[in-house]
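Structure ticket #2291
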Amino acid sequence: SYLFQKGACTRCGTKIGVGYPIIEIISGALAAVFFYAHGFSFPFFHAFSLSGVFLAVALVDLRHRIIPNAFVVVGLLSALTLAPQVAGINLEKSVLGALIGGGSFALIRLVYRWLRAREGMGAGDVKLSILIGAALGFEGWLRAVMLGSIGGGLAGLYLIRAGRAKTDSHLPYGTYLALAAITLQLWQVFA
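Resolution: structure written out below.
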């Protein structure tokens, strides 16, 4: 659509940022990969809808440092309603992953706030953890947390080294968790 609109809004003529066609390309690539792996089926809709939610979460959290509730609700609906249709994830694993994921992050958030008397993790990260647990099950959630922590840590080190952050700077952890979840979805396709 970016090319057809010549990089501008068709109604008002305002320039559209170059990030939007990149997002469209990534979304199209994810759709193609999941369609190739699953065909036109419930697993396709499950994987593609969740990857779309994770991509939106990653970008919004990166830019605005929030994870909208609407994204999490849509993702949870997809994860919980389509989980019984997807090999490897059933409703029981989905609910267990959500409970462990959300409970773990809620506990970490509370303990950090109690020990340091300040926020260390936003409530959006807790809600995203619930979604990732529901979407990928407990084992997938654990892998996403590890991969997201590594990605966030490496990004933090890079930003500190480049002089764009300090050791006490806040990074949008949800961005790295969401990208880790997409990475794990793709890993399932190619593994």
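Closing remark: The chain has a mean pLDDT of 92.
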